[in-house]
Amino acid sequence: MFEFKELDYQETPLGAISLRRRSEPRLGGKILYEVKLGEEFLMSSLFVEAEEELAALALQSLDAEELDVVVGGLGLGYTAAKALENEAVRSLLVIETMAPVISWHRLGLVPLGDKLALDSRCSLVHGDFFELAAPSGGFDPDNPGRLFHAVLLDIDHSPSHWLDTGNSAFYTGAGLTALAASLHPGGVFGLWSNDPPDEAFSSLLDEVFASAEFHVVTFPNPYTGGESSNTIYLAYRAG
Question: What is the pLDDT of residues 48-59, one digit of tens each?
């Protein structure tokens, strides 16, 4: 039997956001969680491999015994949950601009809600990642100037396809330089993108950071019968 339930619907400054749970007959009735902003799909629990790889690839490259991490964009929680699987993670700040998304986790409306909300290392912060990443900002309001070992970003569709045009200033030399200043020496900035690797953006990362690389993450797409892919960018502050 086909199941469909809208679990929440709220207006936000970016538009109406909704969370729904449904079964997928083409996948044997598999239960999926999906988030829409207006009529646009933001995320689905079906395709999470690249979101998890964002955390796995970034954190495995670090040598520190204790890691302080920022995740920009909570979503369904897959990047944050993967980060918490790393036992070296001492603290995790998850910055989310849409208050309803945080409430979904705290109320247990999404599968990973309890995993994040009940982990003492994890703080779910209602705020604008891009404002906090600016030169006058700071990710930890209680500790101005605090540095982090990793900042992982999964908000916009890509460096050139933004949920809000105001985000575009971040993907510039000035925006990335301000972000780099929030990292410990040797720290990593990681970015998820839905698009193929962008040569111009890769070159910009090379200009701002000591080194940068990208990884193409492929995963099965049961709707097409083939594979889809996302891109993970990693950029390192000089050690």
Answer: 999 999 999 999
Domain locations in the chain as residue ranges: 47-236
CB atoms within 10 A of CB 192: 25
Structure tokens at 232: 């993970």
The CATH number that domain 47-236 falls under is 3.40.50.150
What is the reported pTM? 0.96
What DSSP line would sit under 18-60, residue for residue? Answer: EEEEEEEGGGTTEEEEEEEETTEEEEETT--HHHHHHHHHHHH
Phi/psi at 127 (nearest 5 deg)?
-175, 170
Supply the Cα-derived Rg of the chain in whole angstroms: 17
Residue 114 carries which DSSP code? Answer: H
Mean pLDDT of 150-169: 96
Place of tokens 């969680």: 33
Q: CA-CA distances (angstroms) from residue 7 to 68, 110, 124, 200? A: 33, 9, 20, 40
Structure tokens belonging to residue 74 = 């909570």
Which residues is 189 bridged to in the sheet? 151, 235
How many CA atoms does the CB half-sphere of 10 hold within 13 Å?
12
Share of the chain above pLDDT 70, in %: 100
Other CB atoms within 10 A of residue 208 CB: 19
Q: Give me the residue label for tokens 């990973």.
A: 112
pLDDT of residue 90: 98
Give the Cα separation of 40 and 177 in Å (integer): 31
CA distance 116 to 165: 30
